[in-house]
Amino acid sequence: MKHSILRQLSIFACMAALAFAQDVIPLYEGPPPGSPQANYPEKAYFSKVWNTEVVTNVTTPTLTVYKPTSGASNGAAIVICPGGGFMALSINSEGTEVAQWLAARGMTALVLKYRLLHSGEDATQEFSTLYQQDQQKFAQLVGSVIPLSIADGIAAVAYVRKQASKLGVSPDKIGIIGFSAGGTVAAGAGLRYTPEARPAFVAPVYAAASMFKDVPVPTDAPPMFLAAATDDQLGLAPDSIGLYSQWTAAHKPVELHMYAKGGHGFGMRKQNLPSDQWIDRFGEWLQMEGFLKK
After folding, report:
1. Is 106 in a helix, a strand, or coil?
2. Rounded to an integer, what distance in angstroms lies between the CA atom of residue 144 and that of residue 37?
């Protein structure tokens, strides 16, 4: 009964999200570069393991556009990368709900579905089992898709910059935020961008980022916002501290919020903890950096 009610609420939330969404745009004109040919469909369903709606088996990356809902655009845009261990996308609390919050404040928000590892019946169960039992095998499996996911993040920023006039935004006010694995994508986009894909700001939230510890910070690196919880169940809190240290060592603007409690994957979930207000701190930071109006 409980799961039935949760599923009904989740379906209602998805319908509300669709009411906000304006367009779904393919990220690439043809087959995504570097991907083997895939003959399995994308899948969306309610995960009982994660207690949320997820999307899996993404082979054709897309951007779902959420236009400003509070009047005229403020000229800024943001690419949002949900997390899910590169096996799924937690599409609501790390995607659509973030987009709606920012769109209500004048930003154009675009939720990115980036390429994921091929999974079976339930990617969230596969992830939970594999990560708990054999992290080395898990790292080997997702290692093949991580470069493709990061490439999608970089391509998404480049696409929005190229289409800035059509989207009604300024090409120098386009940033990227990501959560967990999506935070890896965002961090990668903030470290490995090409000139046409430089984000105006980057916000990895409880990101897995140890792979970037030896990557030099670009001389024109964008300002960075970080948020995570010390009690992260996946042990990723030090990764955010590492990125903060890299940015400060390079004398680049950076802000870090490390909450005592919040766990991993708090996103837009409400847990009656200070981490619930991370999005407000992010909004304040965007205002300070000139991407949101007060």
Report:
1. coil
2. 14
Residue 294 located in a structural domain = no
Q: Measure the CA–CA gap between 188 and 205, rounded to whole angstroms.
A: 13
Q: In this structure, what CATH number is given to the domain that contains residue 143? A: 3.40.50.1820
What is the Rg, in whole angstroms, of the alpha carbon atoms belonging to the chain?
18
Interval 215-263: pLDDT, tens: 999 999 999 999 999 999 999 999 999 999 999 999 999 999 999 999 9
Sheet with strand 43-47: strands edge to edge: 43-47, 52-56, 88-90
Closest to 186 in 3D by CA, of 139, 215, 225, 213: 225
Q: How far apart are CA 197 and CA 194, in angstroms?
A: 5
Across-strand partners of 254? 224
Instruction: Count the domains in the chain.
Output: 1
Q: Please, are residues 72 and 106 in contact by the beta-carbon 8 Å criterion?
A: yes
Give the range among 11-25, 42-56, 79-93, 132-146 with minimum mean pLDDT.
Answer: 11-25
Q: Is residue 19 part of a domain?
A: yes
113 backbone φψ class: left, alpha, beta (φ>0; ψ -120 to 50): beta
Show the domain range for 6.
2-289
In a domain, 110, yes or no: yes
User: Cα separation of 273 and 143, whole Å?
Assistant: 34
Contact 257, 224 (CB under 8 A): no
Rounded Cα distance between 111 and 113, Å, is: 7
Q: Residue 42's CB: how many other CB atoms inside 10 A?
A: 15
Residue 252 forms part of a structural domain: yes
- The DSSP output letter for 222 is P
Report yes or no on whether pTM surpasses 0.85.
yes
Residue with tokens 């400003």: 68
Partnered with residue 56 across adjacent β-strands are 43, 88
**Cβ atoms of residues 209 and 223 within 8 Å:** no
pLDDT, one tens digit per residue, over 88-129 is: 999 999 999 999 999 999 999 999 999 999 999 999 999 999
